[in-house]
Amino acid sequence: MIRFTLPMRLLLAILPAAGLMLGGMILVTVHLSQQVVERFINDYGRDTAQREAQAISAGIRGEITIAEGAARMVSALAATREREGQAPTLADRRQITEYLRQAAALHPEAVGVWFYAEPDALGPDNAARDTKDMQVGMAGTGRYALYATSQEGTVLLQSPPDDFTTQDYYARAARSHRLTILPPYIFPIQGSPTVLVSHAMPAMVGDRLIGVAGIDLDQRDRAQVYEGRHPFGAPIAIINTAGVWGYHPDPSRLGSAATFGDGPDYQFSIGERVFIDQAQPYSLERTRSDGSRLRRFTWPVDLIPGEGRRLLVMDVPIDRLARPFAGIRTAILMAGVLCALLLTGLMILAVRLIVAKPLHRLQGGVERLNQGDYGQSLPDQDCPDVIGDLARGLEDFRLTLVERDRLRLDLQRMAACIAVAHDAIFMMNREYSVLYANGQALGLLGVMEADTLLGRRISQFVTPETAAALAGLRHQISDSLARRGMWTGVVDNWTTLSGHRVEAVEFTASNDPGGDILVVARDVSERDRAERERQVLQRQILQQDKLETVGRLAGGVAHDFNNLLGAMLGYAEFLVADLPAESPARSYAERIVAVGARAKDLVRQILGFARTDAGVQEVVAARAIVEDAQVVLRSTVPATTRLTCMTEEGLPPLRVNQTQMMQVLMNLVINAHDARREDTGDISIRLNRGPLPFTFPADWTVQEILPTADGPHVVLEVTDQGTGLSPDHLARMFEPFFTTKGQDKGTGLGLANVSSIIKAHGGGLAVASRLDTGTVIRITLPCLSGLGSNAREPTVGDDGARHPGEGAPATAAVKPRGLKVLVVDDTDAMGELLQEGLSRRGHSVTVCNNPQEALALLVDKSQGYHALVTDQTMPGMTGLSLIHAAKGPNPGLICVLCTGHSAEVDEATARAGGADAFFLKPLSVKTLLDRLDALHSARV
User: Fold this and answer.
1) Is the pTM of this model over 0.85?
2) How far is residue 165's CA from residue 125's CA, in Å, rounded to a whole number?
3) Residue 59 DSSP SS3
4) Of 209, 172, 232, 224, the residue nearest 46 (C-alpha)
5) Are strands 424-428 and 517-523 parallel, antiparallel or unpaired?
6) Which residues of 269-301 are buried (b: 16+ CB within 10 A; e: fewer)?
7) Largest CA distance in the chain
8) Tens digit of pLDDT for each residue in 156-184?
9) How far, in Å, are 332, 523, 874 from residue 854 at the CA level?
10) Domain 14-339 classified CATH 3.30.450.20?
11) Response regulatory domain: which residues (predicted)?
12) Torsion 13-16-19-23 (CA) sign
């Protein structure tokens, strides 16, 4: 018995099916080829008929434009005259005549071009009758009507027949008020009957008919155009919806009615009558009387857009139509047979590819698995048959082998990563015995070998103190792992038995899926130190921002208060000067001056705190700061308080404002004196070279107010043994208006001024205190490393003036009288005070509170001002700007600048800006007068 393979059995089963399929495809292909050729023939014929109809329509529309042009011209002339309120003139008629003459000359193919006007439509006809000129009116009537013909290049003008208005070529267009194309008709042309086709176009102005323009065409000339079109070698014909031939290759049928009936003797079948009546395109097959077959194609010929009244008729022999498509049927038949044969071959090939090849590939995959090569996936897994099931089963087995190798590799990589991790990693069981530890974990416990640690607890390798801390956390760890599956905590002062110490260790414990505990330990000492430093810096920044905000507020308030205080002191000085010495009122005025002086000092303190710069600085020996202040300080504190000053030898020089440094020491010593616990006490001042440690016992509170800058510096410390300060008070002691003294015993500005001055000098400030023990305030000042200890170098702007407003002593001279002074101040009180004070000295004073108005007075030389006294801060213009503008036209003008507070203007800035003198408010009127007189005397 013969045994066939599976592919051979499949092939024997599909051969009969392949034969049936091949025969069916051949039959389908034959039928399909006939339909395709028929479709091509029909579409080709309809497209050809459409092109011919469109070409004929385009040619006829060109003829229609002649009549349309004449009608539009007449309508435009009549409309223009109507808008002007005038009737058309004879000149307008001659213009129309000229248009008709030119149209006839340009279109010799036209039999004639004409226009026939309604009575009096182009002006009164009687006026034209008298001229006897046929170009403007018909003989005997004067009515404008003209017919232009072209004969052998010459245009002839003549009047149309008298019955012109009753004919269709005029009456139909006049009634319809739209373009009209007449069917062919016979009309005598120069005595010869001619078949004409006319196009008539009414000329309208609104709804009023002016006349009708037209063009007549010889149907024989048009027939020559039609005869030149023979698509597929077949003539064309034109029939209208009335069934009348507009054109026919047989001249005898031109203008006659077509015949309708069944059979080859009739021109159209009964069924075609519906399409002709509606001018709808169609195609059908006809058989001639000689038995030949024709295909008739029709298409609308639109002489007027949308008219739809004519059809082009084209009868083409079938053999001529089918000639271009003769090879298509054979090509389709051959393609069908080839496809059937190809499909049969593909079916046979598919048996081999679908069955034989997949089985061979699976066999190769099994051999690779036997050899241990299972890195490549098996093919044919997406097959939805038995072969696919076999492939998927083998692939599952291969993936199991691959997963085993991947897990082994992952375990090796994980172990390598854990071994080099920066964190200490432990794996423990539920009794906290170590199951695994990486290298960092061994180092954290001070263990050299892992075997020493495995199976034991980590508490066995740390000091008793650290073990006690771990034991205290054990209950918390167990509870957190049970509730959340994780615990995080920090153990401080971690110390092992081997002596290894870590400031802080952070532990993170979590449950392992296998039931063990994973612990990760990390040294967070640096992080904790950085966090503490960040908090200290944040407090310092907040403190500085608070001081700057309050400083700006205090400076603004002090500026306004200076003006009021200056006015009060000035008028009080007037009272002291005017009242006799024995008058009680004079003593009251003197008390007002004394109280005002105290207020003046308070304002100076506020302005000093608000000032953000260090004023005029000079290079001085460091020891001079303490030595110059000793005399004043010893007279400030009582004899019961012992003041000790100690200065290190060989200190480098400093660049400081010595007056401000005196103020710093005064404020610190006074506060130290007020902090005494009894009637006696010790205050010590030390000046040393830095850096020096600033460390205290743990029960002392240390606060850094301003950080110490890098570089060489000296250290100034003021120490007392007073009541000390609590931590809350220590953090606020340098805030403006904060004081721990009783009511009326302090303003809270002294230490705030200290902070502002030290900050402006680029120095550092720190304080340490303990209740009932005392306080230490440390100041660090940057020093100059290139100069000797006794150096003293004046700075730019140091003109020897000790206080603002005090210039060089005036030379002895007679005080002038009668100066003309302009006072500019936006505060009325200050202006009135200066006017009164200067007037009392005999000067002529003008007060102006607007700097722009003051500048206008100064520019006017006829005013003759000798001096200008101006405030610095004013709306619209500063005092320095006013001085600069005023000295341009008047260089000899004496200018005095006054200001209550300005961080941008000092003595040096004022002089550089052109001011001859500079005063800080509140100013003394007498000092101002003396300085003014001295400046004037120096210029005389």
Assistant:
1) no
2) 16
3) helix
4) 232
5) antiparallel
6) eeebeeebeebeeebeebeeeeeeebbbbbbbb
7) 162
8) 888 888 888 888 888 888 888 888 877 77
9) 109, 73, 12
10) yes
11) 820-936
12) negative
